[in-house]
Design brief:
The complex is a heterodimer of chains A (418) and B (93). Chain A is of the alpha/beta class and 418 residues long. Chain A folds into 2 domains: 27-78 and 184-253 and 345-417, 3-Layer(bba) Sandwich (FAD/NAD(P)-binding domain); 114-178 and 255-343, D-Amino Acid Oxidase, subunit A, domain 2 (D-Amino Acid Oxidase, Chain A, domain 2), CATH 3.30.9. Chain A is built from 10 helices and 18 strands. In chain A, the strands form 4 sheets. In chain A, strands 1, 2, 8, 9, 10, 11, 17 and 18 form an 8-stranded mixed sheet that branches. Chain A has a 4-stranded mixed sheet with strand order 5-6-4-13. A 4-stranded antiparallel sheet of chain A has the order 14-15-12-16, covered by helices on one side. Chain A is globular. With 93 residues, chain B is mainly beta. Chain B has a domain at 3-27 and 43-81: Folate-binding superfamily (Folate-binding fold). Chain B has 1 helix and 6 strands; from the N terminus they run E-E-E-H-E-E-E. In chain B, the strands form 2 sheets. In chain B, strands 3-4-5-6 form a 4-stranded antiparallel sheet, with no helix packed on it. In chain B, strands 1-2 form a two-stranded antiparallel sheet. In chain B, strand 5 (63-69) and strand 6 form a beta hairpin. The N and C termini of chain B lie far apart (31 Å). Classes of the chains: A alpha/beta (418), B mainly beta (93).
Chain lengths: 418, 93
């Protein structure tokens, strides 16, 4: 692997950018590996990287049915934060956020990680009470949170509609200044490049079609490119979790829904923080290219279509324009949808399955991107040692039957209510 | 946007309807704790035809059972739910 540095970039500029090597190999699958990770998204690639880097596992493959980072890793709104209410989620996402802070240097890849702050808006006194409670809970857990007045919010983001008779009047906000955004594609590429340099085989265009089982134990995977043996197999396929687990005869507490997002034509800098809201569902940020990135609610019914409904576009646009009236002058360039693996308490599952040798990392709902490095670290720990890391232990598969769910929204086993 | 054929009102835009659950997720009142956990928390989550319960919330208000393909959204069957007991009309007036 050729390292990126200021000097390397300068030299490459003088050479007309002609001497860059491939950043990861395109290997043929071997007959067997110690550990096979199914799914070449951010989480799967991060898992493989940490397996090699932290746990010293020499023989690891990532199997991706299409191209790496082509699923939800390339379809999210790139927001990174750890300001959750449930203590288990706070520990998990703060662990991940701390990893983000040094990840670009570690991978020698520019992830464009930008801690521009994540601002939750409050639109009523009740919202502000709820935000103050959230802030207290976060600060008790050692996570940064600052309550802001309406005037402070207006100074931070002058494009917001803060008048008293606005459709969604702004009373104040709660900001996590260490939150922000990262370039989603770069996360997949950075992990793939660093994992490949440590000897991980990143195998694209290789679809898993079944599991090889001996005496109730998984001994490998059947793929579109032949059978591959493995001591341990990790599923890490987001929206396709139910389909892949189904190949091993498992039913999961997951329903696949979809979440849409939208991006406008690029404009000059107008918003240098991430805007979310306590009461309405649109969220807005500006990419480094200048595009306004907008997301909203899921579509609220099971689907694998990766194709959203127009009524949601209308609702999200109406809310975003009510928050930032200047958006009404912009043309939207693209909208897209990702298949979200909606778990039945809104929290992820990082756990062994009832099938020996088979593990699951899924159920991240619509919030998996922010957890990418932490999820990879914890899943690698599980796959390498066979035991859950202390932070991942609450996110077991049997927590539902035990009544130990981690339900941030308090919505119960109804993914369409989140 | 899906067009859902309501058995009572005819084809209507899907925004008039609310998805409730898959048919295998209906919890009988006399389920044992193990059965209840399985029904509440285990899903086939198929990429393909799926039997689902929806409600025409912003229309006639009645429940219906759809067989709907989760990737193409093609609806191959719509019937009133629950099924009418024998000897009765489709719905009591």
């Amino acid at each position: 692997m050729k390292r990126f540095s200021a000097l390397a970039l300068l030299r490459a500029g003088l050479d007309g950018q002609t001497r860059w090597p491939r950043h990861w190999r395109d290997p043929e699958p071997a007959r067997r590996y110690d550990i096979v990770v199914i799914g070449g998204g951010g989480h799967g690639l991060a898992t493989a990287y940490y397996l090699a880097r932290v746990h010293g596992v020499k023989s690891v493959a990532v199997l991706e049915k299409a191209w790496i980072g082509g699923g939800n890793t390339g379809r999210n709104t790139t927001i990174v934060r750890s300001n959750y209410r449930q203590p288990q989620l706070q520990r998990l996402l703060e662990f991940s956020l701390k990893t983000w802070e040094t990840l670009g240097d570690e991978l020698n890849f520019n992830l464009m990680f930008s801690q521009r702050g994540v601002l939750f808006l409050g639109h009523s006194d009740a919202d502000m009470v709820s935000l103050a409670e959230r802030g207290d809970s976060l600060r008790c857990a050692g996570i940064d949170a600052e309550l802001m007045s309406r005037d402070e919010v207006a100074r931070l983001a002058p494009c917001l509609e803060v008048s008293r008779d606005a459709r969604h009047p702004i009373v104040g906000g709660l900001i996590q200044k260490r939150g922000g955004t990262a370039r989603h594609d770069a996360v997949a590429w950075g992990f793939a490049r660093a994992a490949d340099a440590l000897g991980v085989d990143v195998i694209q265009n290789c679809e898993v079609t079944g599991f090889a089982m001996t005496g109730g134990r998984v001994t490998g995977v059947k793929t579109s490119r032949g059978e591959i043996g493995a001591d341990r197999v990790g599923i890490c396929v987001a929206g396709a979790s139910g389909v892949v687990a189904g190949l091993a005869g498992l039913k999961l507490p997951i329903e696949s829904h979809l979440l849409q997002a939208f991006v406008s034509e690029p404009v000059k800098p107008m918003l240098d923080t991430v805007i979310l809201s306590q009461s309405i569902h649109a969220y807005v940020s500006q990419s480094d290219k200048g595009e306004m990135v907008v997301g909203g609610d899921p579509d609220h019914y099971p689907t694998y279509s990766q194709r959203g409904s127009p009524h949601r576009i209308e609702e999200v646009a109406a809310q975003a324009i009510a928050l930032i009236p200047a958006l009404s002058r912009l043309r939207m360039l693209r909208c897209w949808a990702g298949t979200t693996d909606m778990s039945f308490d809104g929290s992820p599952i990082i756990a062994p399955t009832p099938v020996d040798g088979l593990y699951l990392n899924g159920g991240w709902c619509y919030g998996g991107f922010k957890a990418t490095p932490g999820s990879g670290r914890l899943y690698a720990h599980l796959l390498a040692t066979g035991a859950s890391h202390e932070i991942a232990a609450p996110f077991s598969l049997d927590r539902f039957a035990r009544g130990a769910t981690i339900d941030e929204a308090g919505a119960g086993p109804a993914p369409q209510a989140r | 946007m899906m067009l859902i054929p309501c058995p009572h009102c005819g084809p209507r835009a899907h925004v008039e309807f609310t998805y409730a659950r898959t048919l295998d997720a209906v919890l009988p009142l006399d389920a044992t704790p193990d059965e209840a956990a399985r029904i509440l928390f285990e899903r086939e989550n198929p990429r393909g035809p799926s039997k689902e319960l929806w409600r025409h919330t912003h229309g006639c208000g009645s429940w219906l059972r759809l067989t709907r393909h989760t990737a193409t959204h093609e609806i191959s069957e719509t019937v009133p739910w629950p099924p009418s007991p024998p000897g009765h009309g489709a719905w009591p007036s």
